[in-house]
Amino acid sequence: MEQSIKEAKRPPYGILAVLMIGAFIAFLNNTLLNIALPSIMVELDVDASTVQWLTTGFMLVNGIMIPTTAFLIQKYSVRRLFLVAMSLFTIGTLIAGVAHAFPVLLTARMVQASGTAIMMPLLMNVMLVSFPIEKRGAAMGIFGLILMAAPAIGPTLSGWIIEHYDWRMLFHFVTPIAITVLLIGFFLLKDKKEKVNIHLDLISLLLSSVGFGGLLYGFSSAGSKGWDSPQVYGTITIGVISLIIFILRQSKLERPMLNFTIFKYPMFALSSAITMVVNMAMFSGMLLIPIYVQTIRGISPLDAGLMMLPGALAMALMSPVTGRLFDKFGGRILAIVGLTILVITTYMFSQLELDTPYTYLMVLHGVRMFGMSMVMMPVSTNGLNQLPTRFYPHGTAMNNTLNQVSGAIGTALLVTVMSTRTETHAAQIAEDAMKQATAAATPPTEAAIAEMKQQIAMKAMLEGINDAFLVATFIAAVALIMAFFIKRAKPAQDPVEAQKQS
């Protein structure tokens, strides 16, 4: 596939358009679900720690599936992989739309995730081999604009649907679009691939699944079960051991499933580290802002979605701009400016009050997303630019895998900080309230005590959220320090090609 694209006179815009529409639908579906979680909890009678598996389970399957995509991209044609990915996503969406029990809905989400896991690395790889390095930033910018449009409209659209219809309508809305995209791909995608004689190493697949799956499951469970739970530290330990064995095995295989030698290219290694750290910080906003807005402030799902709309739009509209700026100036200056904005705005979110104005939250979130738009795509593209062409499938697979792992770790860490600090603050505030009540001349009434308990719970949760944002500020600051070491990457010489030429 890479060779046929290289030989073409111009990039395969038809293939790219079909892939981008498919990726857009997958992204949109994921962002639609976040605001629907409270409604699903009520109807299917599950608690918060259970319903979060609709998101965590999705990430878990992605984390297990994505490492295999480097092999799949080398083995099969774009057409074949796209049709399989879109079919899985469509089947999952159909099942989710008729689910009347939580296990069925969770299974449907995991089927969806297996399709999405193939789609994103496939699209990234086609983008990398379709454009020369000097035009790659602009191309990635357009790619970012299309994909960022999904989280821009997702929360608002979801809020409107939830207020007017059943949550299943979210899946019914996506189903006909997914079927249409699948049919378009079936008729329009015509690329062929020469038969490649490579085989998937089943032991590597098993080690990868246990390794990444164990890490994701362990960190995702920490928020509800606590870090001292054997289920948490046990699965993390098994995951780490499996990953060490997996990495050692890859270094000995002639055709590794996931090639870890790509980390010897310094700009790729640095970009991977920065994007992992930024992912952890980014999840603070995606996770904590909706909790603050809906739980503490009591703002409706539609208004919560509208509040986050300007930030998502800013990120989407800036994507092609940052792409062109990247082509002109490189990733270093963009990353430093963007991460400086991210650190400042994340710190400002750690100073929330019970009555922080709605407009202030909207503007601050918008500025934060503006800063984020300067970081993710330029840093990732700069790292991938240093890799020789044959390593592109491994680079995109590695990036997507690390994004899932860092996202899960960031979510778990911040949920744990919020939960533990909320309990600590609740105990302290309750103790102070008891001292005041004891000192008062008349004892408080039952109604006053009930109101006091509610105020203590709200104030404690607010302080817990602020503490989690403060931790996220320090995480973002680590990424800012690393950004100063970014250099403009040029394609490194492939040692295999060099040996052939000599």
TrEMBL record:
Transmembrane domains' residue ranges: 12-33, 53-74, 81-105, 111-131, 138-157, 169-188, 200-219, 231-248, 268-293, 305-326, 333-352, 358-377, 468-486
Subcellular compartments: Cell membrane
Domain of life: Bacteria
Coiled-coil residue windows: none
Gene3D superfamilies recorded: MFS general substrate transporter like domains (1.20.1250.20), Multidrug resistance protein D (1.20.1720.10)
GO MF annotation terms: transmembrane transporter activity
Alphabetical list of InterPro entries matching this protein: EmrB-like (IPR004638), MFS (IPR011701), MFS_dom (IPR020846), MFS_trans_sf (IPR036259)
Bilayer topology: Multi-pass membrane protein
Sequence ranges assigned to domain Major facilitator superfamily (MFS) profile in this UniProt record: 15-491
Pfam families attached to this UniProt entry: MFS_1
Keyword flag Nucleotide-binding: no
Keywords (A to Z) from UniProt: Cell membrane, Membrane, Transmembrane, Transmembrane helix, Transport
Gene Ontology annotations for the cellular component aspect, listed alphabetically: plasma membrane
CDD domains named among the record's database cross-references: MFS_LmrB_MDR_like (cd17503)
PANTHER family (UniProt xref): MAJOR FACILITATOR SUPERFAMILY MULTIDRUG TRANSPORTER MFSC (PTHR42718)
Family per record: Belongs to the major facilitator superfamily. EmrB family.
Protein name: EmrB/QacA subfamily drug resistance transporter
Species of origin: Mesobacillus foraminis
